[in-house]
Each structure stands twice: as structure tokens, then as C-alpha cells.
Amino acid sequence: MNTSVRNTGRLISAGLRALLVLTLVCGVVYPLAVTGAAQALFPGKADGSEISSEGKVVGSSLIGQSYLLPKENPDDPDEVARPDLRWFQPRPSNGLGTNTVNTQYSLILSGATNRAGNNTELVQWVKETKAAVIADNTTKGWRPEAGDVPPDAVTSSGSGLDPHISPAYAELQVRRVAERHGISVERVEKLVKRHTDGRVLGFIGEPRVNVLELNVALRESLGKE
């Protein structure tokens, strides 16, 4: 009996020591080592790839933002906020629900709509979005053709939070942004080209434009006048 109790005690003691050691190694030492290495080697990415403007953090380069006008009746849940056409617009966000905490994107979880390409609701939504894109980007003396509207202008990304748009969609918005701010098209085009990233390693992915970075650069450019 005494031998059995002693053996049990030794097993419990060994288990507690293993728990303590593993807790310290896996719960303290390893996280601190990984965090320290990340801060030393990739401080910007480790802190969330934050983008600052005028001394304030305005967002992350990894998560898209919407640019909307304030609602005329904030208490009306059915009122749809209109895009602020002074700024470059991101891809549509067709989220999974509403979220009172995240006012930028109506998402509870990031994800796709899971509608097939022949889904009638999706087809109708794309048609309506394309018509809105054409109308919004029509300026004096220029109106986009239906063929000028790229796919990313009328479809959401798989996550619904894509921070990038294609150079074609950015180019489609150049005239409208220039007109709204009263500046030259050439000036806005230069900003777009400056903030167009090429393929990763020259062959992975597609060229892309980060909307938040572009709008921040546009705002700062206007502030220097």
C-alpha cells in the first residue's frame, strides 16, 4: 500500500514538473522569442502593417477600407451609405452580416458569398454594380464603356477584405478623382503609378494597387498645395 502511494506521488510530482516546464517553455519563452525575432527582423509587419497619416494610424495595408459619405439619417438601418467619390474606391464588400463594432465593412466573419457564377442573384448584383461604377466614374466629356469595367470593380474578393484593386480599376477612377479635387488627370495618374506594386518576385500574382496607401498619398499631396 505504501509503495503504491509513493509511486502515485512520484507520478503526480513528475507530471506537475513537466507541466511547469512546458508552460514556461511553450507559454513564455517561445512566444517571447518569436515576438522578439519578429520585432527585430520585421517590425512593421509584426505591428500589423500599420499605415500612418499626419501622425495618426489610419489603418493596415492588409485590410481594405470603405470610403463612404455619412448617412443622411444615421438611425435608419435601411439607408445605404453612398460612396465618397472624392477618393479611390475599393472592391465591393459583400459580407456575411452586419457588425456594429466594425463600421468599415459589414462583416461578422471574412469570407466569400459562395454564389456560383450562374447564380441569378449574383448576376443581377454584378449588373447593378457595373452600372453604378459607370455612372459614378462618368466625368465631363468622358463616360466609361462597359468593357472598361474590370472584374474586381464588380465582385468582392474571397475574404471580402481585399485591400488592393487592379491597376485597371484604379485607372478607371483617375478622371473622377481628378475632377472632384480640381487637379489634373496626369497628376493623379502619377500617384497611381507610384503606388502600383508589381508581381511578387516578378512572377507571382498580379500587379495591384493598395487603395488605402493611394488615398493617403492623395490626401497628403493635396495638403502640400
Primary descriptors:
225 residues; 3-stranded antiparallel β-sheet; mainly alpha
Structure write-up:
With 225 residues, the chain is mainly alpha-helical. The chain folds into 2 domains: 2-44; 51-223, no CATH class. The protein is built from 6 helices and 5 strands, in the order ααββαβααββα. The strands form 2 sheets. A 3-stranded antiparallel beta sheet has the order 3-5-4.
Summarize the structure.
The chain is mostly helical and 225 residues long.
SSE order, one letter for each helix or strand = HHEEHEHHEEH
Judging from the principal axes of the Cα atoms, what is the shape?
elongated
Number of domains: 2
Mean pLDDT: 85
Oligomeric state? single chain
Work out the radius of gyration. Answer: 25 Å
Q: Strand sequence of the main sheet, in spatial order?
A: 3-5-4
- What structural class do the secondary elements suggest? mainly alpha
Helix content: 40-55%
The count of DSSP E runs of length 2 or more, i.e. the number of strands, is: 5
Uncertain regions spanning at least 5 consecutive residues:
96-102
Strand content: 5-15%
Helical element count?
6
Question: Ends: how far apart?
Answer: 89 Å
How would a crystallographer describe the biggest sheet?
3 strands, antiparallel
